[in-house]
Amino acid sequence: MTPIKVNIFISHAPADKAAADRLLEWMYPMRDEVNLWHYDPPKKPAELPPSWQILSIFFWEPINFIMKTFFGWKPFDLLELYNEKTKLRRENAHIYIFLTSYKSLADKQVESDIVLSSTRRIECSWGDLAPLVMPILLTPSRWKDTSRLAQFKPLVNGIELSRFPQPEEGYLLATEQIVAQAKSLQAKLNEARYFKYYPELDAKSIVPASRYCHPYLGEDPDQFEFNPPKPFRPSDWSGWAVIILIIMLSVGSFEKNSQAIYSLHLHARPAKEYQTEYPRKMPLAPPPANAEIVFPPVE
User: Fold this and answer.
1) Which residues contact 195 (CB under 8 A, 6 or more apart)?
2) How many CB atoms lie within 10 A of CB 23?
């Protein structure tokens, strides 16, 4: 079997995102063994060019309103999709890393992550598969007095990364400790999955996970992938070309005698112009009134 990739979720305040990105760079060589996640929401798409904004007002927004009002259609929301994937990642993490600073102590999202990780540890009756909680101190703060992380042992021997003369030394030490814990946990997860697929090992020394503990054992790795579609970014000139074409066709619908629209509009023909009949040398004449018309027999 393919070894289970350990899910590592880094919780941090928005102001500490730079430190999270830096830690991800240090752990990047482990990308084949672990899944590294943190808060990195997609940026708001850039606005459409002016020409396409005009087209959107007259065409897309009315259609959008009708679809939502009468058919319950819901437009695609990139941020909503990201939040759904983030929720799955938070709930299936094997290791929670909390970047702790005075800014994170007042962040509600970090507090929610602490509650989630602690709850999962409490509900897990087999401690070897319980999620690990690892605080990393970024700057001096009163985290021991005000944070629920006080019950967990911080990495880097409890030294703030800001106290290192060279920040790389602190990130190196933190990375080495995370890698050691991840490899140890990976071996236990592989044993648990092996037992799950081979129940005949019940009498062996491998202890199964408790029914109160539901660790992720690599069942569906694709459920965590966030692959947003590429944004629609047409050129401005193409929008103006569409607008000009719509105007010309619309004008041609009302002014059929306009020579400028003649080549674009199928029915742009002068009202009194008729097709000239082809002259015949022997014109067709109707049969006499008393003539008998004989039709061939039907086979």
Assistant:
1) 201, 206, 208
2) 23
For residue range 281-290, what is the model confidence (pLDDT) as tens digits? 766 676 677 7
- Whose tokens are 């938070």? That residue is 90
d(CA 227, CA 15): 25
What is 6-224's CATH number, 2.40.50.140, 3.40.50.300, 3.30.460.80, 3.40.50.10140? 3.40.50.10140
| Lookup: tokens for 204 | 């062996």
pLDDT in tens, 205-235: 444 444 445 677 777 778 888 777 777 777 8
Q: Which single residue is written with the structure tokens 């660790």? A: 215
Q: CATH 3.40.50.10140 region(s) of the chain?
A: 6-224
